[in-house]
Amino acid sequence: MVRFVSYNTQFCTGLDGYTDIDRIAAEIASADVMALQEIDRHWQRTGHVDQADALAERFPDYHWAYGPGVDVDASYCEPNGRLVNRRRQFGNMVLARWPILMVRNHLLPKLHLRSPLSLQRAALETVVALPDGPCRVVSVHLAHAASSERLLQIERLMEILETAPRDGGAWSGTDYAPGWGLDAPPQPQPARSIVMGDFNCEPNSREYTRLCGSVDPAFGPLSTCDGLTDAWMIRDNNGETDGATYGFDDRPHRLDYILLTNQLVERLSSIWVDGDAVGSDHKPVWAEFNI
Q1: CATH class of this structure's domain 2-73+84-170+186-289
Q2: Rounded to whole angstroms, how far apart are CA atoms 240 and 227?
């Protein structure tokens, strides 16, 4: 059994206003594979802490990867004049008990909105060597302000998932100089994928339909040939509007998902939301697979 969790950590800051990396780490400690969003590196609001490194330190036996969406200058000079070259970043993270064979960070389409906060978003694509073989694990965070922007981002995400198994990954080929293969050959590019993150859309949205297909009131999810499967909807006792992960406008919202390609649907054992978690303004989504 392999346990996955997806958690928008709100830069490890809870509704109580306190930033606490240890609290987040404790809430996800039993997971084998973690997809995290909103991880800060060197922001004043979180004490200039490198939260990616700090989380990695708390899971010393895990492999990890980080991919920023926002990446801007945070360099400074020490009193002696020495330049410290540092980046202020905001992005996604994956941690796994097993090796992360490949990493690619995909920047998603961005619109310059007139007044709302508009951030560069990203999808962190990794290939994790699970016990039964490699699996693509993606940690993603879509735009919060505009449906039109999310739809553009989803089109790009779907393109990445469709082409990834055949595009060769980070590097590929058979005719290359010996030095390229000294460390390892090109890594496998599996078709099966788990896409986890904060999609900032609800099941009744156009964005959700593009990702997972329509949901019929009588028959439930209607699969599409090029879509993903919402793991929450596989379980018979889970309704479309259950599984809330975020609250605003005095009602709960389901914004965070674990989405699967067809190869993993039959492997899903259970899925749940940790309603007791307090480390962020979101709740983590968990899933176990027979792997």
Answers
A1: alpha beta
A2: 17
The pair of structure tokens assigned to 97 is 């008990």
φ, ψ at 35 (rounded to 5°): -115, 115
pLDDT band at 39 (very low <50, low <70, confident <90, very high): very high
- List the structure tokens of 129: 């060597």
- The mean pLDDT of 55-62, rounded to a whole number, is 98
Question: Per-residue pLDDT tens for 217-241?
Answer: 665 666 555 689 999 998 766 666 6
Domains of the chain, residue spans: 2-73+84-170+186-289
CA distance 123 to 153: 9
| Contact by Cβ (8 Å): 35, 139 | yes
Q: What is the mean pLDDT of residues 55-80?
A: 97
The 3-state secondary structure of the chain, one letter per residue: CEEEEEEECCCCECCCCCECHHHHHHHCCCCCEEEEEEEEECCHHHCCCEHHHHHHHHCCCCEEEEEEEEEEECCEECCCCCEECCEEEEEEEEEECCCEEEEEEEECCCCCCCCCCCCCCEEEEEEEEECCEEEEEEEEECCCCCHHHHHHHHHHHHHHHHHHHHHCCCCCCCCCCHHHHCCCCCCCCCCCEEEEEECCCCCCCHHHHHHHCCEECCCEECCCCCCCEEHHHHCCCCCCCCCCCEEECCEEECCEEEEECHHHHCCEEEEEECCCCCCCCECCEEEEECC
